[in-house]
Design goal:
single chain; mainly alpha
């Protein structure tokens, strides 16, 4: 910043803001006046709001992608649970009334094992969605289907 052709201004700052200004100027090794000048120029700049809007837009895009991932993982979890439940209902016979008490005790014990296994898996950071993505084979060109269910057409010959 040039020192010529300047107008002196006197203003007062709250003590906390004055300390912040002094700390910032000290860290950046610039004068407090240059920090104030840059801050005022930025505040009064007509494109300042555009820069802020662009920053907000980037943050919202990132949050939107994160929510999309979260939605995907919830869907995978729901589908996995639905498949498991459907299979379990198909293979588990109905219990006779006299065996209910023993079955309940066994179910409580098995449920406790399930909760412990789930807690261990969550602590490791491994997730079903990640395993499914890794386990899914990459589709070959011949496996990709068009929307109408037919195989893809071979490339047109010249």
């Amino acid at each position: 910043m040039s020192k010529g052709n300047r107008i002196k201004h006197t203003f007062r700052l709250p003590p906390a803001l004055s300390r912040q200004l002094a700390d910032y100027a000290g860290r950046k090794r610039v004068s407090q006046a240059s920090v104030v000048e840059a801050a005022i120029a930025s505040f009064l700049s007509p494109d300042g709001s555009e820069r802020m809007e662009a920053a907000f837009s980037r943050r919202l895009d990132r949050i939107s992608r994160q929510i999309g991932k979260l939605d995907y993982h919830i869907e995978v979890g729901n589908e996995a649970f639905a498949l498991y439940l459907r299979r379990w209902l198909a293979v588990t016979p109905a219990m006779p009334a006299e065996a209910n008490a023993a079955a309940r005790a066994d179910a409580e014990k098995r449920f406790d094992f399930f909760v412990e296994a789930l807690a261990r898996r969550m602590e490791t950071g491994r997730h079903l969605a990640d395993d499914l993505i890794r386990a899914a084979p990459e589709p070959g060109l011949d496996e990709i289907e068009k929307e109408d269910g037919n195989s893809p057409e071979s490339p047109a010959e010249p």
